[in-house]
Amino acid sequence: MASRKCLSFNGRPLGRKPSKLRESKLPLSCAYEEKFLQNKTDSLQEFPVICVGTPTYNRAYCIAATIESVLAQTYPHWHLIIVDDGSTDDTAEVVGPYARANSRIQYLRLNENGGIFRARNCIIDNLPDEVTWIAQLDSDDVFVPEAIETMVARAAKSPEARNLKFGSRWADGPHASQPLETIQCATYRDRLLGEDPWGEWVNFTHRCFFDQGMRFDERLRRTPSVSLHLRVYKIAPAYHFPEVVRIMCRDNLSITRPAEKDTRYYLESVEVNKVFFEQYGEDLLAISPTRYAKKLYNFAMLCELVGLPREQWPKVLRDWRFPLTRRWPLSIFRSLARNAVQAIQKCFT
Length: 349
Fold this sequence. Notes:
Blueprint: E1 8-9, E2 12-13, H1 36-39, E3 49-56, H2 63-71, E4 78-84, H3 91-101, E5 105-109, H4 116-125, E6 131-136, E7 141-143, H5 147-156, E8 163-170, E9 184-186, H6 188-192, E10 202-206, H7 208-211, H8 224-235, E11 238-248, H9 252-255, H10 263-287, H11 289-305, H12 309-319, H13 321-327, H14 330-347
């Protein structure tokens, strides 16, 4: 798709320059008044093509609303890739007509359910050459009409940024991500320590990371921060913007999930922790030995819960030695471990 060297689309200008820059502590050129986004930006010398990536599994009952929200975007230069991760419902019957009617919509079906990260990697592997940015949109959520236009405008005013995040809220009103008044920057260190803005954020990511070979870790079934995002943070900090661009739905698959998490959930959590310590453990240890020790302790307790007590306790006792000599007596540590195990055992008796 050729880029367009004009300053308007759909018969209207993208907006005016802000009258005044406001101070910001962030190393970004996007420190401008929030009202600027009401008019967008006239500094876009070309219109990048945005890929909206949507993995789905058995969401025939709600994915039409997701697709309609993309079709309703005020920004026209987008490409929607929907990857069906082996759905057994009528997802194909719902999505198929949209894909046949609109060349910007691509529908890919996988033969069997392989997990959300396999589906996300399929999206990355099928990016059209003209795509510059990738925006995530789950198949039970919707974009507000100005979502893509807002993200493109922010990116155009932030040439240094390649890892952008935008806010979300639940359909029934509450914020799903931390409400912000200004742009917040989160580094790799912030993310490791859990000091970045909380909540569910829309990732607006430059394709350069994926052109370098980055992919989601398909060994995991959940926790995208461990599967990919922390590796992105290592290269580029994340800039969290105050605009809410996504409405999240509390779908039936989540609502009907049992309150008591089953053994499969905890086994998946063990795998997440293994990958975390394998890829990021040494970094966390260097940044904060105490935080590393606490996370390792929680991991050992998780192994105890799923019947793998011998796998991590020796490592815990060894790696906790340095923090314990500075913060807590070993007897307190043993007491905490004993009490925690007893409490967990009571839940299953």
